[in-house]
Amino acid sequence: MSPHKCRIVVVGAGLVGERHARLVAEDPSSELVAIIDPRQQIDELARATNTIRFDSLQDIADDACDGAIIATPNHNHFKSAMLCLDRQLPCLVEKPITDDLESGEKLVDAFEQAGVPLLVGHHRRYHPVIEQTRALLAGGEIGVPVCASMIWAVKKPHTYFKAGAWRLGADGGPIMINFIHEVDLMRCLFGEISEVAAMASSHQRQTAIEDTAAVILRFESGLVATALLSDAALTPWSFEGAINENPNIAHTEISSWRIGCSEGAFEFPLLRIWQNAGDGQGDWSKKLKSRAASSETVIPLKEQLQHFVKLIQGDSQEPVVSGREGLNSLRAVRAIMHSVKTGEPVVLSAFDDCARPQIEKVN
Q1: CA-to-CA distance for 357 and 360, rounded, in angstroms?
Q2: With contact defined as beta carbons under 8 Å apart, do 118 and 108 qualify?
């Protein structure tokens, strides 16, 4: 372990960037050396976290920090990360890794060739319930996953869009901003996605980007899943609401996923498990019994920060979510967006997103 605190700069101080900055400032193993954000109103956050605000990363000395957390708008991820790589700085890049696959490939290749750690901010993977669920599926107690259904539906306030006009642009809808988290968790739990089909609507908000979408996903394992998502519907169904990880989303304690397996089922992320109540082979004529599995509660962004520090200091060699992992989740989401635009299913192995398809207004 390095004898000094890990010096970290946070690039971008929006909703998530502010949370990163406060966590770094509170973390005993880290030091927040600067916040990079051109907006003068961020000076208040800098004072609150006992640091300095700069307009640009180029305004601070090359040797002033050991790592960077990039939480700028999606379209800026590539530029900011490459500036950090020029300084050989390990990076934690918020999801999505970039806003298109072409720049994502270039970014991942560059960091791999340079041998500099790159971590992608799919923070949900740090919840202990993720490993519990993987163990449940690997143990075979409820058989193999057959089907899944999930909902992510919340109503974002007007202030959310007022604070960032880019959120009404092509990559600001719930598919890219929110559903990418669901996609990453599905890949983590069920394996790679082979094919997607989707449709979307902007009827509620009447903007250029979707506010609601429905997705069908086929996995290489054979599992088929459906997903419904909206940032314009007032419901209790979201991962964040169930597990209470986001201070901006009210705690509901209601699971938002249902997974059917060959010998049972479970609700996620609160892990209520359903199994045959009798002896022998279960089927639709037999009652089911249920039990709830308890799980430790953590602050995933804090767990992610501690992992990032270990990567920087060489105490961990393998990112929980590597650049390649982040890129694969982005590929699936880009394929979903392409399906929305074309009205056709997309096979991921044949999908090339270099043209950066844009979602047109849909009703």
Answers
A1: 9
A2: yes
